[in-house]
Design goal:
This protein is α/β, with parallel strands linked by helices and about 210 residues long. The chain is built from eight helices and eight strands, in the order H-H-H-E-H-E-H-E-E-H-E-H-E-H-E-E. Helix 3 crosses helix 4. The radius of gyration is 16 Å and the shape is globular. It starts with 7 loop residues before the first helix and ends with a strand. The mean pLDDT is about 95.
Length: about 210
């Protein structure tokens, strides 16, 4: 049996201190965290009443921006403790405990106007990223889009530069590389656009090709 390198129990243990960690933008990998969330909202270009799913909702920081924009919100996460924090912050949203790596949960609607995610996909290698994005975009409405904010770099040279700057704060995970992402997605049937936010953050807008 393959061991999950990022088990739900790790995120349960992190839930109570998560906001304190991510909102302190002085340390890698959270430089530009707030700006990345705001960029996700901006790129999603939502209107009041739209249905929005936050994948890996965590404590609800990204979801809160969409709630303030009048969206109908769902959040999915595999950590019960993270979901509990989100429920306290945004009781009006609907929540589903599930791991989307295991397929689309039956408790979710079949399609959403927008699917968003923040600081989740760097836990997945590139083939997993592509597979999950293909599966998620299959659950978008006709004009829907997927927007993902995460730890991301334009290329490996920039990643290497930031690794040196980050020093002991650096952790080896599956960070996005915009140029390699474009190549990985070229046969997926999806259009992918990268918007840089900070030295280690960016947002990807992903839509089905016409």
């Amino acid at each position: 049996m393959e061991i999950d390198p990022f088990p739900a129990a790790d995120f349960d243990a992190w839930a109570s201190s998560y906001d304190q960690n991510v909102l302190d933008e002085s340390r890698f990998p959270f430089w530009g965290y707030r700006q990345a969330l705001q960029m996700t909202l901006d790129l999603a270009a939502v209107q009041a009443g739209m249905s929005v799913l936050d994948v890996g909702v965590g404590t609800g920081n990204l979801a809160a921006l969409f709630a303030a924009s009048g969206c109908r919100l769902w959040g999915v996460d595999f950590s019960p403790a993270m979901l509990a924090e989100a429920q306290r912050k945004l009781p009006q949203a609907r929540y589903v405990l599930a791991d989307l790596r295991q397929g689309w949960p039956p408790d979710l609607p079949a399609a959403f106007d927008r699917i968003v995610s923040a600081y989740v996909f760097h836990h997945f290698d590139t083939p997993q990223k592509v597979r999950l994005c293909v599966e998620l975009t299959a659950h978008l409405t006709l004009q829907g889009k997927l927007v993902i904010a995460d730890v991301a770099f334009p290329n490996r040279d920039e990643l290497a530069r930031v690794r040196q700057v980050a020093g002991s704060a650096w952790e080896e995970e599956f960070y996005w590389l915009a140029d390699e992402t474009a190549s990985a997605f070229c046969h997926s049937g999806l259009e992918v656009a990268f918007t840089p936010v900070s030295a280690c953050a960016g947002a990807f807008t992903i839509e089905r090709r016409p």
